């Protein structure tokens, strides 16, 4: 067995933060304790003093299947630069091509990939499938959920998706709905915004009545939140992913300052980072070392408050892992979980890095990443040794 020992790090493990060590064996966390002796002479030792060891970010809307960009500018590498260790994209399978073998082929087509991954089914195409076909894809094929784009939400309201919604409810699967903001149409006229809110209200009413598990992406206004959680009411089946990047400045500032309040609402998650290149390139390589990660941008501080960092990890890792059915394999640091770990260094937030000095895979406050037990440092390229990502099927654990 190949061992890696992370020493003296500030470990976020569930609801606690303490200084200690993490022992990794192959791709799993073996032990987390105050002090751990190295098990073999050739154990890889990583000094994590003054650095935070966080569960890997789960990016549940990363279009790695259809990226035609240069490899280093593609969605998967941008997600990776922020600390993403689990990615999800959406399969679009035609009715006449749908089969378990087709799903297996599409999974295999994703390989080799650096991080573990899961797959949604496109809800529009899935609405044409029979219940048996959908069960084949989800229960035997392990597909995690269905994703419905904003432009098709009207079909939801018209009743065209009723059979699909019933099946999702019966099988306790997850439906993910994009909002207009997720579709990057942020300059909405007041009248159009009002009609969008009416549509959202109708959808929420339908899924609340049917008790369908739904995650709304791109929520970025108090009006949307009030529809989803009226009066702070927390439904057992309706969840919202807060898009802090697209929020009005006043709303975003409130989230930054009152993360504990938002964390107390168990129906809220924080959206993964936008998959846009930071803009500075050297020899076709993004110079990530000039830009901060999603973690620092969200916390808006150097050395974070313990509670805020614990809350943040829960909202970007643990909660989505539970919703997507990959918990406790993913989404937290504990013995037996996958060794997907962000090594975050807030001391580098204010550091000056000359252009061209460090063409890093990661944003400047990320010291390195553990992916499936492999350590990737900030200054190294990815080798074939790290291309060990696997398809992870949904399990039965829910929030």
Automatic annotation (TrEMBL):
Q: Which residues form the Amidohydrolase-related domain?
A: 284-355
Q: Which UniProt keywords apply?
A: Hydrolase
One Pfam family recorded for the sequence: Amidohydro_1
Residue stretches spanning the membrane? none
The protein's name in its UniProt record: Dihydroorotase-like cyclic amidohydrolase
Q: Which domain of life is it from?
A: Bacteria
Q: Which GO molecular-function terms appear in the entry?
A: hydrolase activity, acting on carbon-nitrogen (but not peptide) bonds
What cofactor is this protein dependent on? Zn(2+)
